[in-house]
Amino acid sequence: QDQLVESGGGLVHVGESLRLSCKTSGFSLANYGVGWFRQAAGEAREKIGCISANGGGPDESANGRFTISRDNAKMTVDLQMNKVTPEDTAVYYCWRGGDYDQWGQGTQVTVSS
Question: How confident is the model at residue 67, as a pLDDT?
Fold first, then answer.
């Protein structure tokens, strides 16, 4: 059974850093594109960034503060969040592509000012 399990969420303060991790199992991570999305309360889910199966190094998000990386040997996909703001408060989801989308259960990140 394919599984993605996020961890590392919690309460942080403005300007701090936080690292989320997604542990995968049940499939060969190296064969899939992966990424991170987030959903704030009352908002649609939005993409932070993705790395293709044959992607090179870490993928930096459009906002320039977040970086996604993958370790195929450890079966993990990480999201490094720097200089967080209250607008980063959301549930963060790990995603895997392929024949169908696979999602984790999400982890809550709350940024306090």
Answer: 92
Instruction: Give the distance, in angstroms, between the CA of residue 63 and the centroid of all CA atoms in the same chain.
Output: 14
Please tell me the number of Cα atoms within 13 Å of 43 on its side-chain side.
Answer: 14
Q: What angle do CA 86, 68, 31 make, to 5 degrees?
A: 140
Closest CA to 39 of 112, 89, 98, 97: 89
Q: What is the mean pLDDT of residues 31-53?
A: 94
Look at residue 81 in the predicted model and tell me its pLDDT.
96
HSE (CB half, 13 Å, CA atoms) of 73? 0
- Within 8 A by CB and 6+ apart from 61, the residues are 48, 49, 67, 68
Largest CA distance in the chain: 41
